[in-house]
Structures are given as structure tokens and as C-alpha cells.
TrEMBL record:
Domain SCP2: 18-106
Domain of life, source organism: Bacteria
Protein name: SCP2 sterol-binding domain-containing protein
InterPro entries per the UniProt record, alphabetical: SCP2_sterol-bd_dom, SCP2_sterol-bd_dom_sf
Length: 110
């Protein structure tokens, strides 16, 4: 069974960010994650964060991905991230280098 995307963004990630607040702020960016079929979340890991909330907001890097591809990304971010990107299934707008820092973001545990 895969990851519950809504639970991940609405419960697990906010709790993990709160626990790792100082380290999370070192990422220094705002992300917009749009998971097709699941929803949209705005993640702030800049000096004003950390925060993760449903909806859309200001972002330095916007990522759009289908729910089934997001499952693959969470399972193995390093191997599947580039593969999905080059297949056109992981779309990145804004600062593409920030997309590389997402792996750190999802490595936090509550």
C-alpha cells in the first residue's frame, strides 16, 4: 500500500517540520506541491517557516505531479525523481535547484 498523500501533507509533514524546525529553515525556500487528484499544499521552509498548509501560496519552486507518480517519488526519491522528471511526469516551475532539496524535506520524521 502506498502513502496516504493527504495524511502526509496535513498531519505527518507539519508534525515533522515542527520537530525539526531549525534544520528545515536551512532549506530556505517556499514550495508549492500540486498532486493531481489529491490536492495542493504550500510548504514554507524559509526563515518565516516552517509550515505546511493546504492550498496554494507564494512559492520559489512549484512541483506538479500525478498521485501515482508521487507514490513512486516517495518510495525512492533519488532514483525515481530524475526518472519522473525526464519522463515529463514531474514538472518543476521556478527554481529547479530547489527541487533537489525536497528529498531532505521528506526525510524528517515526527
Amino acid at each position: 500500500m502506498g502513502v496516504d498523500v493527504k495524511k502526509l501533507f496535513n498531519e505527518e509533514l507539519p508534525a515533522a517540520l515542527a520537530k525539526n524546525a531549525d534544520d528545515a529553515k536551512t532549506i530556505g525556500a517556499k514550495y508549492q506541491l500540486n498532486v493531481t487528484g489529491e490536492g495542493a499544499w504550500n510548504i514554507d521552509v524559509s526563515a518565516t517557516g516552517p509550515a505546511c498548509k493546504a492550498g496554494e501560496g507564494e512559492a520559489d519552486c512549484t512541483i506538479t505531479i500525478a498521485a501515482e507518480d508521487f507514490q513512486k517519488l516517495i518510495e525512492n526519491p533519488q532514483a525515481n525523481g530524475m526518472q519522473l522528471f525526464f519522463a515529463g511526469k514531474l514538472k518543476v516551475a521556478g527554481n529547479q535547484m530547489l527541487a533537489m532539496k525536497l528529498q531532505k524535506l521528506f526525510s524528517y520524521k515526527a
